[in-house]
Amino acid sequence: MERHNRWDxxxxxKLVEPGSSVLDLGCxxxxxxxxxxxxxxxxxxxxxxxxxxAAEAICSGVAVYQKDMDRGLPExxxxxxxxxxxxxTLQLLFRPMVVMEEMLRILSAP
Length: 110
Prior knowledge:
This protein is α/β, with parallel strands linked by helices. It has one domain: Rossmann fold (3-Layer(aba) Sandwich), CATH 3.40.50. Helix content is 35%, strand content 16%. It contains four helices and four strands, in the order αβαβαββα. The protein has a four-stranded parallel β-sheet, with helices on both faces. The longest helix has 11 residues, at 96-106. The protein is globular and about 30 Å long. The model has no long low-confidence stretch (mean pLDDT 92).
């Protein structure tokens, strides 16, 4: 289902540069990342804890790693992505500082 009317998705979509690399943490159904991949030619990767939502994102063509982010994100190298998106997920984490520190580590230096 296409729901391009979410204000947060519209804002993020405008901010992400075409051809960049994007890690979407807590991607849900993968709608935003799928749109970025298809319309802005980004290299995208997602992480989702919920197996059903991860499966839905995979069906949308999104590369998803199913995992609990509270355990950290050691799978991703330092500076591996131009953008790391975390929307509507932070308040659900038990260890939000761990995830925010990992986000900063994973972001490529400006």
